[in-house]
Write a structure and sequence with these properties.
The protein is of the alpha/beta class. The chain has 2 domains: 169 residues, Rossmann fold (3-Layer(aba) Sandwich); 74 residues, no CATH class. The chain is built from 10 helices and 10 strands. A 6-stranded mixed β-sheet has the order 6-7-8-3-9-10, sandwiched between helices. A hairpin with a 2-residue loop joins strand 1 and strand 2. The longest helix has 18 residues. The two termini are 34 Å apart. The protein binds adenosine-5'-diphosphate and magnesium ion. The site of magnesium ion has 3 residues, from helix 1.
């Protein structure tokens, strides 16, 4: 993809965030182009999750600005960002374990629902027109993520890889304009990783939305990313195409320093 022709959908400018004496982010600037897969990599504690948390609104930066789709969102609350089209999956999964895969995906529709989701879940009225529309979206996602076999399974009974897939389904149910994923493949076996990598590429292709991804597996990063940004000790130390990044001396040094 030629990024020169691409529209900037997310713009991070001079973001800084400290926790006590720890500088989680130091003057980080970053742009995300529409339709691209951008991986954020870096050693443990580099600030990757902190950056994603600033994007989704879980953390507020001490300094800097974030603009999404032409609108400043730096201090916008999390739910408003979700309404604006920012969806994320979590490093630790946050799902309703006692509910089915389908119901968890439905829970991702809440911003599109007039009534409160939990309230709705208690008084599940299937004849409701609105409900039916939401259900169709959820069924589409089940189909897209190949989850037919588990749609009615309680999430607590599913293995880790499938829970991650449900979490992705919940994020997609938002019909987002950007998808942010924190270590979607951590803890997965090779086959589960391949599935997840394929779904991320399918999302880019079919939904035409950019994906910002934190991932440790460099083979996966190289395979699926259009661009890679590297954080180290809160600083962005490099940014570029995957093949450039993997042979960048400061990047190699940052990773060797971790050993
Ligand atoms: N909520 C928090 N409270 C205190 N320190 C935090 C918090 N979140 C992150 N940090 C610190 O900020 C630094 C960056 O953490 P994090 O963003 O989780 O890194 P990464 O995801 O790259 O491993 C670490 O030193 C971490 O301990
Ligand atoms: Mg992290």
């Amino acid at each position: 993809m030629d990024t020169a022709e691409k529209k900037v959908i997310l713009k991070v400018e001079n973001l800084s965030l400290t926790f006590g004496k720890v500088a989680a982010l130091s003057d980080v600037s970053l742009e995300v182009y529409d339709g691209e897969i951008l991986s954020v990599i870096g050693p443990n504690g580099a600030g990757k999750t902190s950056l994603l948390n600033c994007l989704s609104g879980f953390y507020r930066p001490d300094r800097g600005r974030i603009a999404f789709d032409g609108q400043e969102i730096t201090n916008m609350p999390t739910h408003k960002r979700a309404e604006a089209g920012i969806a994320r999956t979590f490093q630790g999964i946050q799902l309703y374990l006692g509910m089915t895969a389908l119901d968890n995906i439905m829970s991702g529709r809440h911003i599109h629902m007039r009534t409160n989701f939990i309230q709705n879940a208690l008084y599940w009225v299937w004849s409701d027109r609105e409900e039916t529309d939401h259900r169709l979206v959820a069924e589409d996602i089940i189909d897209f993520l190949e989850m037919e076999a588990i749609r009615d399974r309680v999430v607590g009974s599913l293995g880790y890889g499938l829970r991650k897939r449900v979490d992705l389904g919940r994020a997609l149910a938002l019909e987002p304009k950007i998808l942010i994923m924190d270590e979607p493949m951590a803890g997965m076996n090779v086959e589960e990783k391949e599935d997840m990598a394929r779904f991320i590429l399918d999302i880019q292709e079919a939904k035409k939305i950019p994906v910002v991804l934190v991932e440790h597996d460099m083979e996966v990063v190289t395979d699926i990313s259009n661009r890679v940004a590297v954080l180290d000790w809160g600083f962005k130390i490099a940014e570029g195409r995957p093949e450039e990044i993997m042979r960048n001396p400061s990047v190699i040094k940052a990773y060797i320093g971790e050993e």
